[in-house]
């Protein structure tokens, strides 16, 4: 079975939510929609306090090339534009706060296109639709999709990969979406292929999702036979785009490079579905599927949630926290970020909400001891780095050496920390080193 070099196979824990169909959560009474919920520059507000909006109304426009539009996720009135705690960024960021009205009315611009209208759209028109809809990568990276499907003119793109690997333990949102909306994902892939000038696409799914593989394969044979469903081995981080490219095509994206350099564009399955909805229904990205799971939540679910819904409201909808819940992570256990507040909002990149009670921790929680020089972290590093050495340099703030050893190429997947017998917080030290490097670069830039 195809896969990449390195990687690990942590316990999956997907049984908590994998058989829970996607449930639509009712719109909350208030949403808090950050203007920074994508890679790049924060969006610029186009509404003011007191304005009336509907679900799908543009509330902030992109600023610059790497940015994304933001839309209201409910109908109501803008209550405030102020700083609020963010699930990814370390400091509060500006957000639009909207109080729900009496009805959940959609913006009148949201209306379906006919198949004939869709067929007539040019690649440039589709890129504009995707940009206006505020679509970003829904696998977690949240990179603006319109940019990703606009590779440099000299890039020879020959392959589109739809990423349905979903390799993070606990998470099942993509699995459920592939089982329940396969036609939408396949049509989204066809639209993306048209933009890139391709005749087909690969849909990669890990082999621990047999129902998704069967259902998507059957749908592809009816909707678009040029979509080839590939089964990849269940291994973490199989869903990272560089590893997926290596597994499927045997091509290696160069250090510091991007997939277009080896002729490939990778899009998450949820992103493909969002593209389909934007093109076929004129629906902007104002809601997404989120897995709410873990031993610390009363009722694990897969929920279709409005962007800006607060974690506390999602928890309440899932029956509340169990008394022994100890930790809340936004995302999966490997690359997710621990949260200190339940007032944090769902953003476009929120794939999961994980609540742990200490009984299913994936990482050692014992005291760190000295590195044993066992080499386990080197053997499993999917980026072919030497994590123990890079982490040591970061710990002692030898930043130039850390850069020479490739700290910037670390994707922070956490595989090294998972296998370390000494309990070394390898990925945490590497993150610390990156933070220092970025801070130093910012200081130099300001001095110029």
What would you say this structure looks like, in words?
The chain is α/β, with parallel strands linked by helices. Helices cover 30% and strands 18% of the residues. Among the domains are: 115-281, NADH-ubiquinone oxidoreductase 51kDa subunit (Rossmann fold, 3-Layer(aba) Sandwich); 376-447. The protein is globular, with a radius of gyration of 21 Å.
Key words describing this protein structure:
single chain, 448 residues, alpha/beta, Rossmann fold, 6-stranded mixed sheet, 4-stranded antiparallel sheet, 18% strand, globular
State the gist of this model:
By secondary structure, this protein is α/β, with parallel strands linked by helices.
User: How is the biggest beta sheet arranged?
Assistant: 6 strands, mixed
Q: Strand share of the residues?
A: 15-25%
Structural class based on helices, strands and sheet pairing: alpha/beta
State the end-to-end distance. 52 Å
The percent range for helix content is 25-40%
Low-pLDDT sequence parts: none
Determine Rg (CA atoms, Å). 21 Å
CATH topology tier name of one domain: Rossmann fold
Mean pLDDT score, rounded? 95
Globally, the shape reads globular
CATH class of one domain: Alpha Beta
Number of helices: 14
CATH architecture of one domain: 3-Layer(aba) Sandwich
CATH level 4 superfamily of one domain: NADH-ubiquinone oxidoreductase 51kDa subunit
- In spatial order, strands of the major sheet run 1-14-13-17-15-16
For the secondary structure, the number of strands is 17
